[in-house]
Amino acid sequence: MFKFSSGTIYSRNRTAFFAIFLISIAFFAPSLVIAQTESPSSSEVVLIQDTVTTVKARVADVLNQEERKIPGTDVVQTYQTIRAEILEGEKKGELVEVQNDFLSLERGEAFYLMITVRGDSGDTLYSVVEPYRLPIVLFFVALFIILVLLFGGIQGVRGLLSLIGSLVLIIYVLIPGILGGLSPILVSLGVSSLIIIVGSYITHGFNKTTSSAVVGMIVTVVITGLLAYFAVGEARLSGFTSEEAVYLNFDTRGSIDFVGLLLSGILIGLLGVLYDVAIGQAISVEELNRVAPHLSRGTIYKRAIRIGREHIGALVNTLAIAYVGVSLPLLLLYVKSSTGSLGLTLNREIFATEIIRTMIGSIGLVVAVPITTAIAVWFLIKIKDGHGHAGQSGTGAVDQKKIGEEKRAIEHFGHSH
Fold first, then answer.
1. What pLDDT, in 10s, does the model give residues 173-188?
2. What is the CATH number of domain 51-132?
3. Architecture of the domain made up of 138-381
4. In what order do the strands lie in the sheet with 95-100?
5. Which of 80, 114, 152, 392 is least enclosed, having the fewest CB within 10 Å?
6. Contact 213, 282 (CB under 8 A)
7. Do 327 and 352 form a contact (C-beta atoms < 8 A)?
């Protein structure tokens, strides 16, 4: 009869327990892993995202087309069932059936197709995103460039180089700076100044006339920026007046200052028209001094301001109408659906923003005329004595008969017709 001590029995039982435990783990572990994968716990939710790609496609055939009312409305919409051929990507050459309620397409028409593969079920959905517009866009870009080169000559080439330089600064300096968390207003002031300097000197060359216009524009941009900062703050504008702003805010997790972005848009939008005013005033001063060198600084300033007034009247109207044109659909929507007073409508942020944008831009144009004119007169015209001398470095006395003719020409020029 065998006898075992209690220590021996405990040791053998423990060994058997561990052996059974290891065998159980080896047998049941795969099932446990599968069960956890198929049925995640409430604290661990597995998110399976959809896969979305956009490719170019062409309408091979329109299988069905009918008019239906949009649910919940009386608006009639065209619904199509089309067979589309995918023109690029992994599915190139495949024919797919697409339900289209976005825009009416014709056989042979190219468009962009969105392919969505559902992450949960694996189903593939097809939808129309945009018509293929690039050919007509590129046609008008090419037409613009050809006309600029044909009628603008070397000055047109310089203008195109200036435009390219401005776009480079906006795309590679302004946008990354704002997305990087820098102050939009400071970045915009810096980029605006660079656009003014680069564009002006590329287009018009390095001379005193261009320099006077550049200084005038920079001073005007600073003044306009201060006014815009005050106006936006006092009007309590948030910058969230469009769906794009809301989407951008979510996409950047609220890291962008949208008030500053609004100020940035006001300044950048002013540059094109401001450039026209400043260069025009500087050249006016230069030409008046050239045709009538005997005239004093004060007289030339007054004559140049006369030209600037006509310019202001046209450009302010152009700027205001341009803003109205951009906002026309929204204006029609509010006029159609608004039940409040006119004051309530104008008080809405989306309208108040456009009004302030237009007023600040117009103020910038108005103040640019006297500022640039004064700077150009100071830069370009030397102080003359009462006998038509331009100081000690002048060209001497001007022929009196010529002076009389020039005076009469200037006086006639100054009359309103």
1. 888 888 887 888 888 8
2. 2.40.50.220
3. Up-down Bundle (1.20)
4. 95-100, 76-86, 51-69, 110-117, 124-131
5. 392
6. yes
7. no
